User: Which sequence fits this backbone?
């Protein structure tokens, strides 16, 4: 870890009073060292990770972290706050703050080292030593695992002292004593001590991976030396006369796979030793994961899954008492989880808890604060996110087919019966027919992955079946939504039914697909399929009849939705609504007008930000001006996410401005009667747009309005927030001094 942190990346007098300010102060040191290339972009990535789950831990620790394209090499910065900073930990503010920055493609070795730091943070001796460190150099050495000079002197004195003389090293203030069997702070930093992660050597002389244990561990503790090197975690050995302890296997994982994954593992292992159970953990982190030995799983009496991303190969743990929670529960209350899984085993309860069916993030324990509205949105977005690539591929293929083969290409015979290699019409028909096949998957994929979001893999079969029935019945997009929700609900209901042990093996392969598909199919064919089809036809007819003022208002509404969250759920709802209308062989003019309005409005925010950084660059940071250059291409390609860096940095000015411009563009596009058959492509499909010149006028008008509003609003605030920071840390990191020149925060 010597190249990850130095004294220049340590601030023992961190004066920040918010987690955002703390991240900025520590990240500025990384910028000064050349480890971060774009301060604002990196902080946006940190904020996005923080939004997924607070990074505060019990014991006064905050550990913001992320993987980012703006990081050149793995870097760690440390700050110590006297007042404490709120990182969302249950027990209050954090006084020890670690900012971990990993490149988007960080190598496994560096990530393994970072994971070892996460394990150290569960060691009270290590954190006590950090709180006692009096210089930045000493703190950096402790984090790296170097032996401090004072302790080297103590070791030398101990070696030269008489055998009956005890020498107390300088690290004793951290609660350690040389010459005793208690771990020293330096030993903790090196990965040894009470955490149970000793640096036992392997047969090749290389140190074992973090988490390997010495055979001298307490009785009943599963030794796993060189487990990751071997690729699996072996079965613990027991003596002939030793009673068999309770055995638990666990999996930990978090979205970034750097910190919480390994903290939860360490916490569970420590709690397992205290409870006298055998507990083996599989950490599914960024550095990959060593698969638990199947024999270990087979011998386990219970399973603990502490995760915030889906557990890989979760079927391995089927049929065992299981506690399924968020990763922070594994850190904060491991003893309770162990007690809970033992209680489940005593009762013979092997199905997942009612609030945590198989492995979907929206249903696991720990998300009890989420309402059903939030869960419903997540389920629907799961289906839409899997459907969009089919829409893009199929729509662009159809658009290219029309471009090459002409507007009569939809009347061409099947290319299986008639294809001439030298005729453009045949190639156009080929592309059109491939795109048509891709479009036939839209509703089944939508329904299948809504059910998947609710019930994991068992929901796929009934979801796809229900979606296909919705397509055949003419229920379309609305039918797919209903089919997915029904299929997922049916699977969840089946999973809650107590099942005899003899049937558990065939449940996921035979019983669940059979019963759930039959129930979903019955409901779609007999009960709700026809009413939804009628509603879908009525909606289509209403849209086809929209003219004049009504059409303009619809365009404005769709424009507002497209620019509200720039690729988020509201944006995707508007986009899915538009693509559903053209996902037929012969869409109506109204459906193609809606598609045109949606795409035009979605192009406005990034193009406007690009223009604003060009005409009034002094209102933006250098990083934002660089992002503005890329936003030209992103906006022209209909990628609304190109405006996210600007919205994240200044949402109160950027988002309302973007919505105003998007609403104008959507309204003008509908008023001009512009049509679009392709669901994507931006300016690259302009030749396929009806009334292309007026369409471009609508986009230009919206871009100008958004640009003007952004420039005016940013100009009204005068000096940008944060531009007056002239403290030593800020100047050292290259933060501009207060020159009176506005710079965006």
Assistant:
């Amino acid at each position: 870890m010597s190249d990850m942190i130095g004294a220049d990346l340590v601030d023992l007098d961190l004066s920040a009073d918010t987690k955002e300010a703390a991240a900025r102060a520590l990240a500025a040191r990384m910028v000064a060292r050349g480890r971060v290339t774009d301060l604002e972009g990196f902080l946006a990535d940190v904020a996005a990770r923080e939004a997924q789950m607070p990074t505060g831990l019990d014991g006064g620790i905050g550990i913001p972290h992320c993987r980012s394209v703006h990081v050149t090499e793995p870097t760690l910065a440390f700050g110590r706050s006297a007042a404490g900073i709120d990182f969302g930990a249950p027990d209050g503010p954090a006084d020890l703050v670690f900012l971990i920055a990993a490149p988007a493609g960080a190598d496994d070795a560096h990530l393994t080292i970072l994971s070892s730091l996460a394990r150290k943070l569960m060691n009270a001796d290590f954190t006590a030593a950090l709180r006692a460190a009096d210089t930045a150099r000493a703190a950096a050495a402790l984090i790296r695992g170097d032996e401090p000079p004072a302790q080297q002197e103590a070791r030398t004195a101990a070696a030269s002292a008489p055998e009956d003389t005890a020498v107390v090293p300088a690290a004793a203030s951290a609660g350690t004593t040389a010459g005793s069997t208690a771990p020293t702070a330096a030993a903790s930093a090196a990965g040894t001590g009470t955490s149970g992660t000793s640096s036992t050597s392997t047969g090749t002389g290389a140190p074992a991976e973090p988490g390997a244990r010495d055979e001298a561990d307490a009785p009943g503790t599963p030794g796993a030396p060189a487990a990751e090197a071997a690729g699996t975690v072996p079965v613990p050995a027991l003596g002939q006369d030793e009673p068999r302890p309770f055995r638990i296997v666990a999996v930990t994982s978090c979205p970034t796979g750097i910190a919480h994954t390994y903290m939860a593992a360490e916490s569970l292992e420590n709690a397992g030793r205290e409870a006298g159970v055998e507990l083996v953990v599989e950490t599914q982190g960024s550095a990959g994961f060593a698969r638990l030995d199947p024999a270990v799983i087979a011998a386990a009496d219970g399973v603990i899954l502490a995760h915030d991303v889906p557990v890989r190969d979760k079927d391995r743990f089927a049929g065992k008492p299981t506690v399924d929670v968020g990763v922070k529960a594994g850190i904060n209350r491991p003893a309770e989880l162990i007690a809970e899984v033992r209680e489940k085993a005593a009762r013979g309860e092997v199905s997942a808890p009612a609030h945590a069916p198989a492995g979907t993030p929206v249903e696991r324990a720990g998300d009890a604060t989420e309402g059903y509205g939030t869960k419903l949105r997540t389920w629907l977005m799961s289906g839409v996110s899997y459907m969009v690539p089919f829409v893009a591929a199929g729509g662009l293929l159809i658009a290219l087919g029309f471009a090459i083969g002409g507007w009569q290409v939809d009347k061409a015979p099947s290319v299986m019966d008639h294809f001439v290699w030298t005729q453009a019409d045949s190639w156009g028909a080929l592309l059109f027919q491939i795109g048509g096949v891709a479009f036939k998957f839209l509703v089944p994929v939508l329904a299948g992955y809504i059910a998947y979001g609710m019930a994991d893999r068992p929901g796929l079969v009934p979801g796809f079946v229900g979606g296909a029935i919705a397509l055949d019945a003419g229920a379309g997009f609305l039918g797919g939504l209903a089919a997915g929700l029904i299929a997922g609900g049916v699977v969840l209901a089946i999973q809650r039914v107590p099942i005899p042990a003899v049937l558990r093996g065939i449940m996921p392969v035979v019983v669940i697909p059979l019963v759930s598909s039959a129930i979903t199919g019955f409901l779609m064919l007999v009960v709700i399929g026809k009413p939804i089809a009628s509603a879908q036809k009525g909606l289509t007819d209403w849209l086809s009849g929209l003219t004049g003022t009504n059409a303009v208002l619809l365009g404005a509404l769709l424009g507002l939705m497209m620019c509200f969250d720039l690729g988020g759920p509201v944006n995707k709802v508007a986009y899915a609504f538009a693509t559903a209308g053209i996902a037929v062989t012969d869409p109506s003019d109204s459906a193609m007008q809606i598609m045109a309005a949606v795409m035009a409005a979605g192009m406005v925010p990034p193009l406007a930000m690009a223009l604003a950084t060009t005409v009034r660059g002094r209102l933006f940071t250098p990083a934002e001006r660089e992002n503005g250059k890329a936003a030209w291409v992103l906006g022209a390609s209909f990628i609304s996410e190109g405006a996210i860096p600007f919205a994240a940095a200044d949402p109160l000015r950027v988002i309302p401005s973007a919505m105003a411009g998007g609403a104008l563009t959507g309204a003008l596009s509908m008023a001009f009667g512009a049509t679009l058959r392709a669901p994507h492509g931006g300016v690259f499909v302009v030749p396929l747009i009806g009334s292309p010149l007026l369409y471009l006028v609508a986009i230009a008008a919206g871009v100008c309005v958004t640009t003007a509003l952004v420039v005016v609003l940013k100009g009204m605030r005068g000096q940008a927030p944060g531009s007056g920071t002239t403290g030593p840390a800020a100047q050292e990191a290259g933060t501009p001094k207060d020159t009176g020149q506005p710079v965006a925060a």
